[in-house]
Sequence to fold (1481 residues):
Amino acid sequence: MDSPDNGPSESNEAPESEPVDCSEEMPVFEESPLITNSEEIPMLEELPLIKNSDQEPALKSPVKTVRIKLPPTCLQTSQEVKSDQESLDNDCDVGDIDQDIDDALDEGYMGMECTLERGFSLNESSIARDMRMERYSEVAIKYKQGSGMSRYRQALKHFIPVRKPSKEKDEMPLDRTGLYSFISYSWITSLMWKAYKTGLKEDDVPICSKYDMCAYNTDRLEMLWNEEVKKMGKDSASFHRVVLRFIKTRLIIGILIFIFTLTLGFIGPTIFMRYLITWLSSEEPITTGLIWTVGLVLSEFVRILMFGLVWSVNYRTGIRLRAACLGLMYKKLMKMSTLGSKSIGEVINLFANDAQRIYDYVVLGPLIIGGPFVAVGGVVYILWLLGPWALFGMLTFLLFYPFQYGISRLTSYLRRRTVTVTDERVCKMNELLSCVKLIKMYAWEKSFASSIAEIRSRERRLLEKSAYVQSISLAMAPTVPVLAAIITFLAHIGAGYNLTAAQAMSYMGLVSHLQFAMDCTSYCSIAIREGQISLTRAKGILLMEEISPYIGKPRWKSTAISMEGATLAWDAVSLQKRKKKKKKSKNDDASPAHKLLANSSVQEHTDVLFNIDLKVKKGELLGVCGGVGAGKSSLVSSLLGHMRLQSGSVSVQGSVAYVGQQPWILNATFRDNILLDEPFDAKRYYRAIHACNLSQDIGVLPAGDFTEIGERGINLSGGQKQRLSLARALYANKDLYLLDDPLSAVDAHVGSHIFQWLIKGALKDKTTIFVTHQLQYLPQCDRILYLREGQIAELGTHLELIKETEEYANLYRQHMESIAEEDKKREKDSESTIRTRQDSVRSNDSLQNGVHHNSPEKNPEKEEKKDQSKVPGQLITDEKMEKGDIPFAIYHIYIKAAGGYIVSSLVILTFVLNVGSTAFSSWWLSLWLSDGSGNTSVTVGNETYISENIADNPKQHFYQTVYACLIFAILGTSLLRGFAFMKTTLLASSRMHDQVFVKVFRSPMSFFDTTPIGRIINIFSRDMDEIDVRLPMTLETFVQNIWLIMSSLVFVCMVFPHFLPILVVLAIMFAFIRKVFRIGIRDFKRMENVSRSPVYSHVSTTVNGLATINAYGKQEMFTKKFMLLFDENSCVFFLFNCAMRWLAIRLDILALLVTACTAFLSLLLRGHVDAAFAGLALAYAAQLSGIFQFTVRLSTETEARFTSVQRISNYAKGLVSEAPSIIESKQPDEAWPKYGRVSFRKVQMKYRPETPLVLHDVTFDIDSMENIGVVGRTGSGKSSLGVVLFRLVELTGGSIRIDGINISTLGLEDLRSRLSIIPQDPVLFIGTVRYNLDPFDNHSDEKIWSALEQTHMKERISNLDLKLNAPVIENGENFSVGERQLLCMARALLRNSKILFLDEATAAIDTETDVKIQKTLKEAFKSCTMITIAHRLNTVMSCSRVIVMDSGRVAEFDTPKVLLSNPSSLFSKMVAAADSSWEKQ
Fold:
């Protein structure tokens, strides 16, 4: 055996080790604690043996295979450690392991860093992403408040005509653009061309501009908000006013440029077009006509450029405000310990949908000024042109604005109601996805599906109402100018006045600009109202009440914790009686459960800790115990500062580490979960790994400690999650450790190891508050605190409390008596049992890994071939981004969902009728003007001449009647179109929602294991919002404009047939531009879709881990990550919008060519074409200038929005479903299972195809009414037995039979509804206590109270104001973890199944209650077959038989008596290890 000084061994075989004597110098073995014996690992030639993990990207260096030595204490495998547990506990000083690790690492040994060179290839995209994130830190600048013009220095540089681009290719080109590039968007041309040539990848996209970054703008908005709150106070502070201050300068600049743009648009038809049409009827020279033609084209060209500048300013304003608002809300969340009255769904919805509405508020909102400006200008011009009779037509405009105001108010009202229901749906979906495993096990899919369907039904009704109102607004806006023209002309002619072609057609040319102004008014009023609602909701987050800091510093330096007369309270849900109202309340749209919770807008504080007097010295280990709901977790929370101090004082000295009762796990690598952004230190890291007994767990992970851990630790067992949290706390190296029942989810061996090595060893010099239900550890604590009903019942050392005859002494004696009884029973069974405790000591790691060296997981030759595209250790699959065009199949799916091709064709026909009636009105007017007076002779005095006044036309009445009837045709077809379109699109969105919901809900657990919740929530929040609201609005306008363009081109070609060859050339140019550059727009939209999911996942993770984040002081780390993720989304979102505008400008110029060609043709063909029809062609050609680019942009935007349809369709079609719920031909009898016999035959199971087997040839039989205990180390496959029994994962091999029926032949609902489970993690749903116990209302109140009494929760529930109807908030946070577990047990009692599976059911319950519960279980389920997974071995001693699981195999299966009689059995050794801590007392 080599010593540390001899360097690495050349041998390929690890020698057999001898028993370890910790008092001697520790030898070094040739293997890593994280890899199996004799495993070769590649190591970089150019790297030192010990290196910092920050150098990980250097993996591209050549590799070679070496051997690494480590202290044997680090290994403790079953072959190497054979000394007994007593020797380990008594003789081995915990400090020895630290010294051995220090010595080994100082000599140059790798330690835990060997995991970096395990031979797996790191995900290159992940490395690139990390490097990209680092670039953000390099580029970012800190906001500094400027003064005077210095604030605008950077913005003013854009007015320099031409500037040099940045040398850094990954920086946003916009920051270095000159005036030409800024207006024309030419800075994005290279990206658009690259998208066409090769497609866009993440690396091709520049990073977000430093002036648009979330952190920069959040700091500025936060400063303004703080000033507002300081000046006005919280109640009077206006977030709207702060937002206006934030965007004030850019808002004014944008409005001024927009007014200039509108002026140019006004000048074109009113001056240049009118004089050009007048010239066509005159004998003036051609140069005069040429001047008017050039003026018309030039004014339109400048208008196009200025309009592009308006969008450039508004886009950046919007992107900055959007980033600032969401950044500020996230920073507010970081200051909260809980969400209070807000739900996770509401918060996610804010970040998902309200972000877009805040952006639209700034981008579209300012354009509302265009409506009044153009309307006033139009009124003045028409009064000047046609006289006072034109006021009849202008009355239409004046009436439209109050109509539009009423529409916007109604839209706002409906939007508020819709948002409430949408929040409820997203919240329900989030709850469903978080608890999907339990829902499937209970076969509650139908209950939750009907709940979601009911919420969606209410949401759809509100969406329909809102959509109809918006559709009326959208349909009326473009018709108002046309109707105004018809009324104006009818009134003018009816009064006997003449109407010339120049007058009529210049007005018709103005109509397109009036239409744009009306459209602006319609769209912008909606954007403003929705933006105001979103800002109000954001203000609600910002004004959430923060808990006042109350943690002080102790007066004495030797004191770590001091509580003097402290009474503390939680924010409790309180129900307020609502005043009766005659009108329907807004909350009528909510479900009964949400109505109940909605009534709790005013929060009360419920005192839970009373008059606490406690002083804890530095370095003291204080054990805390008490019954369920006694206030143990609240005591920990009070020391974290998360409660409300009602009276007294709380003082804490030093930094704090916190381990919650329910571990909080990040979706990151195993190592990152421990480091939590702390610098990597190999010595500290390994101490944490060893003390928390994680070495072997890391060893079996596919990529060691670089293995990705799923959301909520989905690929870890409960014990592994708890130990990972403990390792995180130890690595943090804090002064004070708050451990809230950290050993509840680990078995006795691991618990003993953690207590000795971590709590008594590594933390021996730290102050530790140790909350536990496991009394065997309390005698080793310095002092013990016993809580009862929120008060200190007893406090002292173990010996002091035992001498007294109080509750603690009785509880401890009762526990010891139960242990003694078990000992006597075992003594009768075998005289060797006592000897077992002394002879069978084997460290926890060695016991757990007795067969690991032979298991397939550790033998790469036996592993199945894995998907080469997936990195080993990577759990979460990258979200797929589609490439290429949206296939026709997607449009086909949408059309079918909308009702089919016939229905869709009829809807399109309504558009044709609407646009056709409008176009016909213009053609009819031209025909009337062309007919003139009808060659009517008029006698004036003694002279007779042909009249030129159309009022003298003998067919005037006929012309007027037809023209007037068109008013009703236009109005009728507009309303019909809006109704038909909105009805069909909402039908499509509802059907697609139902399809994807059913498909997702019916997916197997492997889908939920590998897909982040944020990604699924993205589908049901933002993507559904796209197809519910945004796609219909875009699609409606697009279809309408398509027919408008066609009618315009038809008129131009009818008047000027010579235009047809020009049209062909223009069409080819248009097709090329659209084909080339719509690809870039589509790619940007897809990247934006994908970049949203990480943001939502991060927000969801943050909300769930607020307590841990605040305890470790990691607010800055999580805020920084959020801002980086949001910057990535902002960047592609901004580029998508700029790409749309890039295309719009170029298409506007193309449309301008149509106007120019039409004008020059009218110039050249003067005298050959009637002036009225030439004017009609010019008016419609001018209309093309704006509408053409808008329509093409809409086509691209529509295609981009169809990516949401594609994503939903891919989920609906691509997800693999579970087995059917019910198979009619295989339905079992109603009484099945009658006996409860369970038979496993060679059962094999793997969680996913690419993962190794977790159950290996498991075979056993369970008889009717047997009580089977299942024990084994953490991760040995205990819970996997329940997974296969409930068919959450289908078997890879073998079979399971219940009462002789192969369960694989049954429908899942038939199977799962006949079984019951009490899960490891207690789950409560939003609603009431009754809803959580009996969601289907199958049981009477008497039965429910009986179940609560049997689980010792009757008193707790009866003390609530509403008893069974008392509200349960999200995650059941208003109950302790132990109380939640007892409620889950009551739920199982009510279910009364023949087979009951208890998965660590009493892990969070105190010993006394556990004894009562075990008694209840024996009585209530005496006629049932029970399978119990337990960490407390005493709970399985009374079982009929015990299954000992080891590495996915049944190692032992017999009665406790037989297993204990064999000293070498694994069960005997587990009992011995569990008892060792008791023997020392």
The longest helix spans residues 445-494. DSSP finds 44 helices and 26 strands in the chain.
